[in-house]
Design brief:
Its EC number is 4.2.1.150. This is short-chain-enoyl-CoA hydratase. By secondary structure, the protein is an alpha/beta fold. The protein folds into 2 domains: about 190 residues, 2-enoyl-CoA Hydratase, Chain A, domain 1 (Alpha-Beta Complex), CATH 3.90.226.10; about 45 residues, Lyase 2-enoyl-coa Hydratase, Chain  A, domain 2 (Orthogonal Bundle), CATH 1.10.12. The strands form 2 sheets. Strands 1-2-3-5-7-10 form a 6-stranded mixed beta sheet, with helices on both faces. A 4-stranded mixed beta sheet has the order 4-6-8-9. A hairpin with a 2-residue loop joins β1 and β2. α1 packs parallel to α3.
């Protein structure tokens, strides 16, 4: 891979977007490799994935403006679909994905972070959707996910004005879950991923599926989705072991993912 580094540490997969000279901007190759990296994650052993950016300045400074500058209408639509398909893959990835946002998360960078389940950032992080200032709309899901995460009014303000917000404001509006000093960000992300990894993997996956699918439908249908996934858990060895351990007043040594 030219622009993506992948490492597995125990049960945690760590993806690093590695194009620091362009502040990890997303060109077609980065997007293609990002999709391929997710496809190659070992689903037997990996229980959570972390995405971060190389360097100390930027998570992702957006889609590559140089590459986008010459697009035609149909090419623009196609490029939007390429980004949307990869980000949707991340959003629907069976196991949780944590964004460790280590600096700029602008345009496509903010959109990438929003496709992850949980967003942790460093204190130097900056978020924004600068697209309308470049003559385009947010095109990798920003018009949809930002409104769902921070609310319609705040999303419209950020998108129409192209105002950037810093880490503390991102925390206040609910765009990120927590802020850490830059040097402590990865440790915090790995600690959270490790906590996820210790729980029953099938139950964690089913919870992600229930939340994601439930948000797409009305409450009554959503609760049926939950009931079915909840019921499925009772066919797993992990449920039997989890409850047996509780009743025997001991900790589960290791969930078996079955
Ligand atoms: N694309 C391409 N190159 C970039 C990008 C980018 N988004 N961001 C930074 N770079 C490059 C710079 O050109 C520069 O390269 P070089 O050294 O060769 O000149 C290098 O990275 C370092 O950047 P700066 O010198 O500008 O660093 P500064 O610290 O001075 O500034 C900023 C950092 C503020 C992050 C600044 O680089 C900046 O404003 N970048 C652009 C941010 C932006 O507007 N992002 C949104 C892009 S649009 C988008 O993401 C749309 C997504 C949906 C697409 C849908 C398609 C249909």
């Amino acid at each position: 891979m030219e622009f993506i580094l992948y490492e597995q540490k125990g049960n945690v997969g760590i993806i690093t977007l590695n194009r620091p000279k362009a502040l990890n901007a997303l060109n077609s190759v980065v997007l293609k490799e990002l999709g391929q990296t997710f496809d190659a994650v070992d689903m037997e052993t990996v229980r959570a994935v972390i995405i971060t950016g190389a360097g100390e300045k930027s998570f992702v400074a957006g889609a590559d403006i140089g590459e986008m500058s010459a697009l035609t209408k149909s090419m623009g639509e196609e490029f939007g679909k390429v980004g949307n398909d990869v980000f949707r893959k991340i959003e629907l990835f069976p196991i949780p994905v944590i964004a460790a946002i280590n600096g700029f998360a602008l345009g496509g960078g903010c959109e990438l972070a929003m496709s992850c389940d949980i967003r942790l950032c460093s204190d130097n992080a900056v978020f924004g959707q600068p697209e309308t200032g470049l003559g385009i709309t947010p095109g990798f899901g920003g018009t949809q996910r930002l409104a769902r995460i921070v609310g319609v009014g705040k999303a419209k303000e950020l998108i129409y004005t192209c105002s950037n917000i810093k880490a503390d404001e991102a925390l206040r509006v609910g765009l990120v879950n927590a802020v850490y000093p830059l040097g402590e960000l990865m440790e915090a992300a790995e600690k959270m991923a490790g906590k996820i990894a210790r729980n029953a993997p099938i139950a964690v996956r089913a919870s992600k599926q229930a939340i994601n699918e439930g948000l797409q439908t009305d409450m009554d249908s959503a609760l049926v989705i939950e009931e079915k996934l909840f019921g499925n858990c009772f066919e797993t060895e992990d449920q039997k072991e989890g409850m047996k351990a509780f009743l025997e007043k001991r900790k589960v040594d290791k969930y078996l993912n079955r």
